[in-house]
Amino acid sequence: MKQIFIRGGVPLTGQVRIQGSKNAALPILAATLLAGGEHEIKNCPKIADVYYMLELIRSQGAVVCWKGRNLSVDTRQLTPGPLGEKKEGTMRSSIFLLGAMLGRFGEVDLEYPGGCVIGDRPVNWHITHLNKMGVIFCDSDERINAKVSKLIGCEQYLTFPSVGVTENLIMAAVLAEGTTIIHGAAMEPEIVSLCEFLNSAGAKIFGAGKSDIIIQGVNCLHGGNITLPGDRIVAGTYAFACMITSGGILLEGAPTSYMTRLIPMIHAMGGNTLITEDGIYLYRREELCAIPYTITEVYPGFPTDLQSPLMAALCTANGESVIEERIFGNRFRVVPELIKMGADIHIKEHTAYIRGVEKLHGATICAEELRGGAALVIAGLGAGGETYIENCGHIYRGYENICRDLSELGARIYGE
Ligand code: EPU
Q1: Is residue 227's pLDDT more than 70?
Q2: Whose CA is nearest to atom 22 of ligand 1?
């Protein structure tokens, strides 16, 4: 579905189930290549990025089978080779295949993931830190070719807690000789899920979710299993949609313990929340209030992936909000589209100044990337009149079926 049509102004009500986490699923699917065995991944989201990753691991001989939302992946017999043709270049997370392939086969030939619409996204830290474990990279502008005769555990000091670098190092270290200690590791919940999966497959990883992670290399791994948590970014997106429409919704399966920054923000915006056994119920209790200052940070700070959805919700809040983007260099691409809908936003370097307007109006706009696209959906739901969003393919990279979910909450939204 490439276009989304919205008739805005309907308060969201009812309940919706939150899909499994994209950013937990992707490295875990890569990790199935590392461990030869029969793996079970439950609550896996059916999104375009997962389908791309499945294509890549299938190209190495993995046998994949869906049973409802659960995925079984058999990686006992692989036939490793160059990874994909062009395909992996379209998805940043193909970079996780680096650690997984080096760990299992000692070599990898992967198309360079390249830049990305939200910023440059270099891979220099992946290379530097894998180098320290004995990996040799061959120079090439187009592909990453790397080899190692034996991965050697060591102490790694990260200058920035990169999610992808932490995940790659964990994967490389699991079958390495000796112990690896990652100092300054990322603490995102997705790291915890990856380690839980790898430990279920026989790895020895300690400290996941903390800034120092210890990995004792083991000789072999076997099949692993995990139930993926709900996607905290999808839950946050729907929470902001509820706020802009002045609704009241239950987000079933939302990972509330990973939403510690979002929940106080909903309160500060004029909402209330109630954590239940099923997830989180939230509603707007008063007028939408501006949030004076938000910075995007690594976990447990406010996530960059919710920056654009938050901005969309704040467009009609009472007062001025300021958002500073500190993780990616180009994550304000949604701003000109929001301005077409009547938003009052000014950008100065990495900071957005949002003066709340009374109402947004419908417009024909274009989604340029995943989270920016979701932000336009939020704006369309809150706007008066009809909004037509073009180029929505990006949104399906991360949201299973945003039209279905929001329709269940009463929105008048149609994808075609
Ligand atoms: N960076 C470098 N060099 C590197 C690696 C990273 O300079 O070698 C920089 C990046 O350019 C960026 C910062 O470090 O400015 C943070 O990048 P990080 O490596 O932490 O991000 P990532 O692993 O590439 C994951 C998520 C992103 C999410 C970020 C930050 C997956 C598949 N992707 O990316 O998710 O924004 O962490 O939390 O897990 C999304 O879902 O929309 C998304 C972009």
Answers
A1: yes
A2: 164
Question: How many angstroms separate the CA atoms of 402 and 375, rounded?
Answer: 12
Q: Identify the band that residue 1 occupies on the pLDDT scale cut at 50, 70 and 90.
A: low
Q: Where does residue 391 fall: left (phi above 0), alpha (psi -120 to 50 degrees), or beta otherwise?
A: left
**Residues flanking ligand 1, CB < 6 Å:** 22-23, 26, 92-93, 119-126, 160, 162-165, 190, 303-305, 327-328, 370-371, 398
Please give the pLDDT value at position 88.
Answer: 47
Q: What is the 3-state secondary structure (H, E, C) of 59-103?
A: CCCCEEEEECCEEEEECCCCCCCCECCCHHHHCHHHHHHHHHHHH
> What number of H helices and E strands is found in the chain?
12, 23
Q: HSE (CB half, 13 Å, CA atoms) of 312?
A: 34
* pLDDT for res 90: 58
| Closest C-alpha to 311, from 363, 234, 249, 374 | 374
**Rounded to whole angstroms, how far apart are CA atoms 196 and 200?**
6
Catalytic residue, chosen from 116, 138, 220, 403, is: 116
pTM over 0.85: yes
pLDDT for residue 115? 52
